Amino acid sequence: MKNKLNVLYFNIFLMFLGISIVIPVLPTILHDLNLNGSDLGVLVAVFALFQMIASPFGGRFADKFGKKIIIIIGLLLFSISEFIFAVGDSFTVLLLSRMLGGISAAFVMPGVNGMIGDLSTHESRAKNFSYMSAVINTGFIVGPGVGGFLAEISHRAPFYFAGGLGIVALLFSIFLLKEATDDDVEEAYRKPKVKEPFPYKLFVVPVIIMLILSYGLASTETMFSLYTAEKVGFEPKDISIAITGGAIVGVIFQLFLFEKLVGKIGEIKLTLYSLIYSVIILGVFLVASNYLAVMLVSFVIFIGFDLIRPSMTNYFSKLAGNNQGTAGGLNSASTSVGNLIGPLVAGVVFDININFPLYVAMAFFVVAAVIVFFYRPDKLKF
Known about the structure:
Layout: H1 2-21, H2 26-32, H3 37-65, H4 67-87, H5 91-118, H6 125-151, H7 157-176, H8 182-185, H9 204-232, H10 236-256, H11 258-287, H12 291-300, H13 303-320, H14 324-352, H15 356-374
């Protein structure tokens, strides 16, 4: 079981390394094509739209046909989308790339979440999902540095490299990734907590929380490079340092604190405290007015997100029982709705005032915190 998880983690690392490699050069690509903040918002939103549409199918297909084949299809689409972006010389071609990218995420993430859920016992679930988030963040640590180096060769080089990483992950999945067997899942699901048919009512509040979270995260992440570039003159190398530093801090929290925090206070309280932290730190980010202050806050601005994401993913898995793929698809779909709305709104209000996306994100987090505060998960039996 451990070897299966390690192969899965390695493939996810390669994919998110590919995703993060291109982040530092996005502002330059937009400038070369005479695109603005609203256009960037549309590019991110189109990705989320197609992820939202395809996620329910990806989740159901994962449960029906197996997680491995869904992950393989998703990685293939990811590689194709990156190669298309690399050669794209118009907004239309970039949109096509993002459409395929959204579908790829709709297949990969439900498959990954479902497979981790299948391979996890009740005791190991939080640890396994925290490791997954840490692996994703590690990809974000290495990626911007590699992307900044490749950008010195060509602004398109990071996209070619990302596509190549997708092919490597695809080959690893084909030859090394194995489906969970009955021996793997027997202990975890000897007494399934959720019976067929899939209990959608149990997921109403978690889906709402995940949607609001993803909105705030997507709006903040989408405009981060443009915001820091305009406010204090961040260049691609500065953006790389900020993202890398923040990802390192996130990995530390996920590897060494997340499992302990979940075990002590549970996913819901951890989500509440993380939302409150996110509101406060975004306020601090707003008032930071010089290069050093913005850089330092950038290192800790995403800690709340880095704890909420694995916390809610773990909670989805606990509710899912034997329906890990479907729950993963629902998680992915709710996330993509926020990812769709967030960049669109952030792009529009950014062009009005660069601070507005942060104000809106803070308001959404306050709403989410209120919902979580009054949520009573103790009425659910696991």
